Amino acid sequence: MEKMITDHDITKLKDVFVTKEEFFALSDRVGVVDGKVEVLSDKVEVLSGKVEVLDEKVEVLTNKMELLDDKVEVLGEKMDYMTVTMDRIAGNYDTMVVENAVGADVLARHTRQIDVLAKTTGTKLPD
């Protein structure tokens, strides 16, 4: 009876297919790779959780910045009101200074006129 598979066929098949030993060695490597993939997946989950926490913190900070912007806007409006008020006060002060100077000139002129009138009529004025 003739052999169905020759040694040459076995050599060819070994080149094409893996042996049991090679298969188990590859499966061990696949197991190690699967383990590494699992570890990396765990790390990705942890990082995703951290990203979510950071997103929440960014949202909180964004809300706080919006509140600060609102407060700054209110302060700006108050400063505008105060600026207008200070301008009015300064304008009123300038008006009073001018009126005081004009009043002082009028008073000085009247004083001179009264002194001349008193001398002309011989009237003695109180000090």
Kindly list the characteristics that best describe this protein.
single chain, 127 residues, mainly alpha, 2 helices
Overview of the structural elements:
With 127 residues, the chain is mainly α. The protein contains two helices and no strands. The model has no long low-confidence stretch (mean pLDDT 89).
Gap between N and C termini, in Å?
162 Å
Rounded mean pLDDT score: 89
Structural class: mainly alpha
Which percent range describes the beta-strand content? Answer: under 5%
Helix content: over 70%
**Low-confidence runs:** none
How many helical stretches? Answer: 2
Overall geometry: rod-shaped
Task: Tell me the radius of gyration.
Answer: 52 Å
In total, how many beta strands?
0
Helix and strand sequence: HH
| Largest sheet composition | none
Brief characterization of the structure:
The chain is mainly alpha-helical. The protein has helices spanning 7-16, 20-121. Helices cover 88% and strands 0% of the residues.
List the helices and strands and how they pair.
Layout: H1 7-16, H2 20-121
